[in-house]
Amino acid sequence: MPRRVAIAGLGPIGSKLARALDEGIPGFALSAVATRNVAKAEAWLSSLTNRPPMVPIDALEGYADLVIECAPAPLLPAIIAPFLSAGKAAIVMSVGALLEREDLMDLARANAGQIIVPSGALLGLDAVTAAAQGTIHSVRMITRKPVRGLAGAPYLSAQNICLDNIREPLKIFEGSARQAAQGFPANLNVAAALSLAGIGPERTMVEIWADPTLSRNMHRIEVDADSASFSMSIANVPSENPRTGRITALSVIAYLRKVYAPLRVG
Fold it and tell me: Helix 76-85 vs helix 102-111: angle between axes, to the nearest 10 degrees?
């Protein structure tokens, strides 16, 4: 029997995953969805070959073995806690919210549940995880985004930073991954994922630049460890949501395809 998958949130990421599951990913079947915009979702779901039931968030666990969280960060606990309590798995896209909810990791540990963080819009997490088996001396990420990809971030309001009229690249933040996740909850899940793979949110350092000359979200990682020193760069094409790269949803699809594949790389 295929493993039943629920999706919470049908924005650019969730809808892409729902479509992929409907078209077929070996070993998995879309079993339920939850979304705040019910009317819009009803019309979209009718385009699927096998339309899943749409249920409230707090009912998802009864329909699935695995949940994929693609919703606003404040909804993370309500979505994944029932699955973790039942010893099930949750794939988390709002990774920054995890840094403030260590109780969810404790819940997974206590009940043999599992929180899965995909590579998302970042690259090289496997290398960082490998380096963390030894000693990592430092990790730094430099993010450069088009201005619209940073719009609405709480940090900008708190610091009275207006990006409407900038004409050249402007560094708007420098600090820890934890601070970045707090100030840019919809923009910097990549920093949180990097910190969890390596030396933690306090020691992982982040720079954020608003760059009106860019059309892509750019991330550069610099790692110095006793096993290797390496740097990696990626330029992501934004999805319909300018805060999120198209590759984010594809990383989840790639993860699901690897689970039961006869050959697994990475």
Answer: 20
